[in-house]
């Protein structure tokens, strides 16, 4: 019995993106507050949260925020306006020059659109490390999500559940049963491509119980984290997507038992009466790597 080894650099390769908070880039107070919020990543939003006449100013503020060096270890991204809007190209050019961790692009339908954004980033002098986070929020995107996810410049898929529900003419209901099949399809594409995928936002900021239930659902489905619209949602999200003490302790025992069995030439390993196979060891190593990565981020 052999295992798939995890390198010592596993935690460095695994960047936590449990909580990814949208912050309106036109709001100077919000940008300042974002420096103190314990979100793993910030999306400086130039799209939905910004009025048309405020978009140029918001663009400048987002660029300044990315370049400020005042946000600690938070991953900083900029959500541009849509490719078919009068602001989209200028947003991508400005963001590319600022070289954030990524640009978030709404309503990406095809891999050709990802190619176009990548070319625009290159033309703007963006770092090769500036990635693209396409938002998956239309029926066309769902049909093309495998090719979008496989693009080499795509690091993260972002589910746009509000727009997807609108396009499908389905209500947003407790449990999200109208969307579950589509969420699962995008998850499959992300896992096939080895990419991160983020669950969509929860709209009712005054319903913490409903929010907690949706976080639990997203975590159990396999999402890597959740996009958020309010700072109050950050800490509960971080808790749901962080391994608990019991989970860490169990993972350590699984790995220790497996390594001991391999050293002794045993063919069968059990922990707490349960048979342990390679996949359980891989899961345990991911749990420990995630815990280490979260500690390093903090």
| Number of strand segments | 10
How many helices? The count is 12
What fraction of the residues are assigned to beta strands by DSSP? 5-15%
- Helix and strand content put the structural class at alpha/beta
Output the strand order for the largest sheet. 1-2-3-4-5-6-7-8
CATH architecture of the largest domain: Alpha-Beta Barrel
Largest sheet: 8 strands, parallel, barrel
Give the terminus-to-terminus CA distance.
Answer: 37 Å
Low-confidence stretches: 1-12
Q: Given this structure, which CATH class of the largest domain is correct?
A: Alpha Beta
The coarse silhouette is globular
CATH topology of the largest domain: TIM Barrel
Mean pLDDT: 93
Element pattern in H and E: HEHEHEHEHEHEHHEHEHHEEH
Helix content, binned percent: 40-55%
Please tell me the total number of domains.
Answer: 2
Q: Round the Cα radius of gyration to an integer and report it.
A: 20 Å
Determine the CATH superfamily of the largest domain. Answer: Phosphoenolpyruvate-binding domains
């Amino acid at each position: 019995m052999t295992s798939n080894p995890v390198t010592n650099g596993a935690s460095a390769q695994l960047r936590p993106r449990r909580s990814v908070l949208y912050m309106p880039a036109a709001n100077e107070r919000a940008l300042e507050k974002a420096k103190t919020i314990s979100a793993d990543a910030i999306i400086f939003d130039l799209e939905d949260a910004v009025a048309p006449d405020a978009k140029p100013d918001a663009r400048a503020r987002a660029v300044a925020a990315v370049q400020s060096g005042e946000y600690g270890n938070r991953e900083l991204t900029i959500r541009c306006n849509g490719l078919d809007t009068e602001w989209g190209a200028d947003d991508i050019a400005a963001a590319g020059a600022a070289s954030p961790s990524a640009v978030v692009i709404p309503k990406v339908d095809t891999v050709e659109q990802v190619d176009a954004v990548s070319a625009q980033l290159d033309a703007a002098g963006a770092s090769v490390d500036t990635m693209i986070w396409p938002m998956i929020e239309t029926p066309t995107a769902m049909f093309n999500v495998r090719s979008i996810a496989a693009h080499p410049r795509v690091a993260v898929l972002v589910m746009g559940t509000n727009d997807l529900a609108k396009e499908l003419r389905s209500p947003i209901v407790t449990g999200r049963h109208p969307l579950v099949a589509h969420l699962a399809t995008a998850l499959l594409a992300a896992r096939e491509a080895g990419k991160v995928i983020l669950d969509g936002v929860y709209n009712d900021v005054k319903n913490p119980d409903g929010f907690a239930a949706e976080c639990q659902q997203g975590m159990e489905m396999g999402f890597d984290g959740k996009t958020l619209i309010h700072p109050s949602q950050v800490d509960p999200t971080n808790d749901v997507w962080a391994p608990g003490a019991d989970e860490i302790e169990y993972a350590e025992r699984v790995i220790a038992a497996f390594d001991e069995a391999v050293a002794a030439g045993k063919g069968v390993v059990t922990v707490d009466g349960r048979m342990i196979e390679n996949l359980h060891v891989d899961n345990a190593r991911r749990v420990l790597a995630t815990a280490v990565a979260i500690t390093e981020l903090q």
